[in-house]
Write a structure and sequence with these properties.
By secondary structure, the protein is α+β, with helices and mostly antiparallel strands. It is globular, with a radius of gyration of 17 Å. The longest helix has 15 residues, at about 1-15. It has helices at about 1-15, 20-25, 35-45, and strands spanning about 50-55, 55-60, 65, 65-75, 85, 90-95, 105-110, 115-120, 130-135. It folds into two domains: about 1-45, no CATH class; about 45-135, Immunoglobulin-like. β1 and β2 form a beta hairpin. The structure holds copper (II) ion. Copper (II) ion (CU) binds near residues 81, 119, 121 and 124.
């Protein structure tokens, strides 16, 4: 699992990197190179979604914009909690639960639609640690 996650992050980072792809994009159209760079930077600036885990609740926005997004996850609870996102062909989570006070990050490419967020620690989903994220 860690290897899969790292590979996914690496692919996404490469895809979102404005440095290496600039020449190819400028050859496909008349747009100046500077326009391409500006677009990439603006996208990266709004890419983080904050997630708070506690007993037994997941606090985060209900709606997110499509694109490459990093979930920045904090365990504000007393027990160990984790994070999983499923939907639109995506199914990925933290490789290990977060202990109290720990933080974790997952970077994914979100497309428009509905995703289910949950805590995969035993029994927590049934106690309320599940919710829907709408991506538009
Ligand atoms: Cu939990």
């Amino acid at each position: 699992m860690p290897k899969l996650l790292l590979t996914l992050v690496a692919v996404l980072l490469f895809a979102g990197c404005p440095g290496g792809e600039v020449k190819d994009e400028s050859q496909s159209g008349p747009r100046p190179t500077t326009v391409t760079r500006t677009t990439g930077t603006a996208d990266a600036a709004s890419s983080t979604i904050a997630v708070d885990l506690l007993e037994y609740e997941i606090r985060m926005p209900e709606i997110a914009k499509a694109g490459r997004r990093t979930f920045s996850i904090i365990n504000h609870g007393k027990e160990a909690h984790s994070f999983r996102i499923e939907g639109n062909g995506l199914d990925i989570g933290l490789t290990e639960p977060l202990e109290r006070g720990d933080t974790g990050q997952i970077t994914v490419a979100l497309t428009a639609g509905s995703y289910t967020i949950s805590c995969p620690v035993d029994g927590h989903k049934g106690k309320g640690m599940t919710r829907t994220l709408r991506v538009e």
